Amino acid sequence: MSSSTEPSPRLLTFTLVFGICFAILYVVCDMAALPMFTYHPATDRLEFGFAPARRDEGPAMYWYGWIVSSALGAAVIGLVAAMLPKHIGRKIPLALAWIVPIALVPVLVYSLKFYWRW
Amino acid sequence: MDFVLDYISVNAFWTTLSVIHALLAVALLGALTHQAAAALAPPRAGVAGGFVTHFRSVAGPRYVTAVCVLWVLVFVFGGWIYTKYRIYVRIPIEQEGFFKTLGVFELKEHLATIGLGMLPVYWHLWKNARNTAYDSARKWLTVVLAAICWYAFLIGHIVNNVRGFGL
Q1: Residue A1 covered by a domain
Q2: Tally of structural domains, chain A
Q3: Each residue's pLDDT tens digit, B86-136
Q4: Could you tell me which of A71, A107, B95, B146 has the fewest CB atoms within 10 Å of its CB?
Q5: How high is the pLDDT of residue A84?
């Protein structure tokens, strides 16, 4: 990551760590049911945290809540990483930006095992 | 947005949003595919080529802002119509027993979301395209985003074919 033409190592560290952590936290939030909020689309109701579907009120949606949870978590971790000494940030391999999302695909496929009915 | 429903039907409104989502996805797919091809297999200097050479001869950095804006727009429209999908599309497909169709669509939503989180570093790497230390990460990050985009586009098309418009 070291280069004389590198304009902003702290910004690079933040975006890199944010991308990695966002992907990991999103999968964790999905598998551990950790949405920031639950949305009930049939009634337009929002509830903080995880809430099961209510009787006669249609399904509950957690996807929006997972996005907010993982974005906030990744932003905090990214900011902390960006504040670390530059030589530590430079040690984070750039390749993790694309390897981590690929590595998470089998985990996501497994998390959807309910749907793989043959 | 309720005032719009004074002029068009509810079905027409959501169908319009779905078509806008699809058209934006087409633009994103084209931009990312050109950029990924240029990053993966840049043409050799001085070689006069045909269609494929011209296809991958684009200036990658010029696409980065468009790709980020389009990804966010496609995502916002997708997230908007997702509320109706959950009730009026997913439930009937569940009742028909097409679980694998639903599974690949859920995977599309997950991958599109992870792609959204990759955009800041993607943007940073392309905005500093002269930095050769970024070349490998920039190339493979772009290829992964293009692969996600192709998967999402095809699966969205399949699910739309399963359920259809205006039902």
Answers
A1: no
A2: 1
A3: 888 888 898 888 999 999 999 999 999 999 999 999 999 999 988 888 999
A4: B95
A5: 92
- Chain B residues with at least one Cβ partner in A under 8 Å: 79, 82-84, 86-87, 90-91, 99-100, 102-104, 106-107, 109-111, 113-118, 120-125, 128, 130-134, 136-137, 140-141, 143-144, 148
Rounded-to-integer distance, Cα B31 and Cα B25, Å: 10
- Residue A71, domain member (yes or no): yes
Q: What is the pTM of this model?
A: 0.92
Query: Tokens at residue A10, please?
Result: 């702290």
Torsion (CA) A20, A39, B108, B84 in degrees, nearest 10: -150
Return all residues near A78 (Cβ < 8 A) that are at least 6 apart: A13, A14, A15, A17, A18, A21
| pLDDT value, residue A4 | 44
> How far is the first Cα of chain A from the last one, in angstroms, to the nearest whole number?
47
User: Cα(A23)–Cα(A101) distance, rounded to whole angstroms?
Assistant: 6
In a domain, A15, yes or no: yes
Which member of B87, B124, B143 has the closest CB to residue A15? B124
Q: What pLDDT, on the 0 to 100 scale, is given for residue B134?
A: 92
What ipTM goes with this model?
0.91
Q: Which domain holds residue A46?
A: 9-101+109-115
**pLDDT by residue (tens digit) across A2-59?**
444 556 889 999 999 999 999 999 999 999 999 999 999 999 999 999 999 998 888 9
In this prediction, residue B5 has a pLDDT band, given cuts at 50, 70 and 90, of confident
Q: Is residue A59 part of a domain?
A: yes
DSSP 3-state assignment of A17?
Answer: helix
What's the token pair of residue B41?
């297999």
Would the pLDDT of B165 be above 80?
Answer: no
End-to-end CA distance of chain B: 21
Length of chain A: 118
